[in-house]
Design a protein that fits this description.
- The radius of gyration is 16 Å and the shape is globular.
- The strands form two sheets. The chain has a five-stranded parallel sheet with strand order 2-1-3-4-5, with helices on both faces.
- The protein is built from six helices and seven strands.
- Helix 1 (14-25) packs across helix 6 and helix 3 runs parallel beside helix 4 (101-114).
- The protein is α/β, with parallel strands linked by helices.
Length: 171
């Protein structure tokens, strides 16, 4: 385990909260990022003294905030990480192929992070649609996709966290 101090964005969110606990249990020092990604004034300070950023934070619900948060917030976070000397950046993306604003902005966020490959090690981990935990099932959405004969790629939140941990450990 080369990266001991890890900044986790979205630390109060669905994946970030569970991931923070799992990283702590695995021996990492977790530095939760509680600020909103559209408020980038404090990003450099947050990135100081960490070896790795795991970027789970995203805007899922408010369409008018998705670009500002998922694209620009990601860009400014990656810039701050490079400036602070962060060695590794793990971006949590989406494996969804649906044509939604969320998916589009997450893909644009990936492109922003890719620009910083070189000054730091960049990994992109695309997670499928998640279920479990406190999140209610999206049965009606899933049923609609099934009736349209469209595939659904599902994963439990716990399995997603294990997948992120594997990526962290693999380097």
């Amino acid at each position: 385990m080369d990266f001991k101090r890890v900044l986790v964005t979205g630390a109060t969110g669905y994946v970030g909260q569970a991931l923070g606990r799992a990283l702590s249990e695995a021996g990492y020092t977790v530095c939760p990022f509680y600020s909103r990604l559209d408020q980038h004034g404090c990003m450099y300070q947050e990135c100081n003294d960490v070896e790795m950023v795991i970027h789970c934070g995203a805007e899922l619900k408010k369409r008018e905030k998705m670009y500002e948060t998922n694209v620009l917030g990601t860009k400014y976070l990656a810039q701050a990480a490079v400036k602070a000397g962060v060695k590794r950046f793990l971006y949590i993306g989406t494996a969804s192929t649906r044509d939604t604003e969320y998916v589009r902005t997450k893909r644009q966020g990936e492109q922003e992070v890719e620009r910083y490959r070189g000054p730091m090690q960049v990994q992109i981990l695309r997670l499928p649609t998640l279920y479990g935990g406190h999140r209610g099932p999206h049965w009606l959405q899933w049923l609609k996709l099934v009736l349209q004969r469209r595939p659904i790629n599902l994963q439990s939140r716990d399995e997603a966290v294990r997948e992120v941990l594997r990526a962290v450990e693999a380097g």
